[in-house]
């Protein structure tokens, strides 16, 4: 009788899926898939065709054995190959048959992500995929002896690895690649792909911040081997950016790779390295919205302090408030930038704006001093009256209360008529006694009639004449006081108008300066 042992139910399933074996209801299970009790088994034994069943079971056994042999062939040969390769292998020595032969290492870098760019400490943190390829002369085999096995994957610490390190690393911790498996090919070619998080030093040039471009170098080379022992090559002309995850702050414009061979004064051997230059451009939208635009808006408030009336008493307060706001923005930029001699572009803009605000505040104080000149001050000089009150006030459209461009036009017409027809006569309170005597008598006669002095009674006439003289003296005194008061007010109003014209002049000058400075900053950034 033939006996069959099926150690794994999954084998039958795989045979059924491949079409080698099609299961039928087992004779003594009655199509249910469950074994019958022992007493029923002997009753059905006579009904079964035992020779046919034995042949079927033998075919099943043969198919299962063959499938299991195919399934475990790779594992057996790989295990045998592993034992044969590493029986006398040492990963401490450079794997070359001739010690004078150079071992070539091919390096390829794939940039996956920029984790951080610390401008203040000048450190670039990047997530890289590093691929290193080299030949190991002691790890080769004939594929025919191992059932056509052409490659195996083994832990990387079992084989010799080149000591390729990042020369310009900027952290105390190790930034070497992870100990992942290597792919070993039958001809000794080893491919090692490993991820690594690197922190490298990057000299940040903040001259054009926030419209700056940066170049960060990643230099890889052997730490102990010279160029006559281990030579390093770049697999591509640039780093691979196909799997790069876009960064929110930086745009990557390329990653060219260059091989360098350096000879030091202490040693005659060459030392090769491969330098990958990461070309970065800052995304400036965040800094434009949060730093530049508020500064521009605040800077345009500085000229408006000249438009504020001097009598309000808030001109200096506005200038000081604007200056404090600009100082806060300047401190925010200083916290981001490294402590270097290069002043960022936005920092220059802040300094220039603060200088303008300081100058405007100082000029505001001077203008307020002119505005509050009273009767004790000297009269407005002739040159100031001509240049400021006559010409500049017209150009800047500065007029007193009640004046307008129309009234100024009438004044110009009156001046023109005066030149053509001569000066018109003006009334004068002080008249000469010897001149215009008839008119004086007529005025006195009218006054006497108003006072009731008709000359009928000499005593009454003398009394009325005495009252007339007193009244005349009082009128002359009042007229003199009014004239002095008018002269005093005229002197103060002239100084106020001078201050107003100067205010308007500096307002337009500072508006133009702020606008030109903003345009220059934007043009410099482009």
Description:
The protein has eleven helices and eleven strands. The chain is α+β, with helices and mostly antiparallel strands and 526 residues long. The protein has three domains: 9-20 and 56-85, no CATH class; 103-283, Neurotransmitter-gated ion-channel ligand-binding domain (Acetylcholine Binding Protein, Chain: A, Distorted Sandwich); 285-423 and 470-526. A six-stranded mixed sheet has the order 3-5-6-2-1-8, with no helix packed on it. Strands 4, 7, 9, 10 and 11 form a five-stranded antiparallel sheet that branches. The longest helix has 68 residues, at 458-525. The protein starts with 8 loop residues before the first helix and ends with a helix.
Please write out the topology.
Blueprint lengths: L8 H10 L19 H8 L4 H36 L17 E16 L4 E13 L15 E5 L8 E3 L14 E5 L3 E13 L11 E10 L7 E5 L15 E5 L2 E7 L6 E13 L2 H15 L1 H7 L7 H22 L8 H27 L10 H14 L9 H17 L15 H15 L6 H68 L1
Parallel strand pairs: 1-8
Antiparallel strand pairs: 1-2, 2-6, 3-5, 4-7, 5-6, 7-11, 9-11, 10-11
InterPro entries: Neur_chan_lig-bd, Neur_chan_lig-bd_sf, Neur_channel, Neuro-gated_channel_TM_sf, Neuro_actylchol_rec, Neurotrans-gated_channel_TM, Neurotransmitter_ion_chnl_CS, Nicotinic_acetylcholine_rcpt
Subcellular location: Synaptic cell membrane
Pfam family, one: Neur_chan_memb
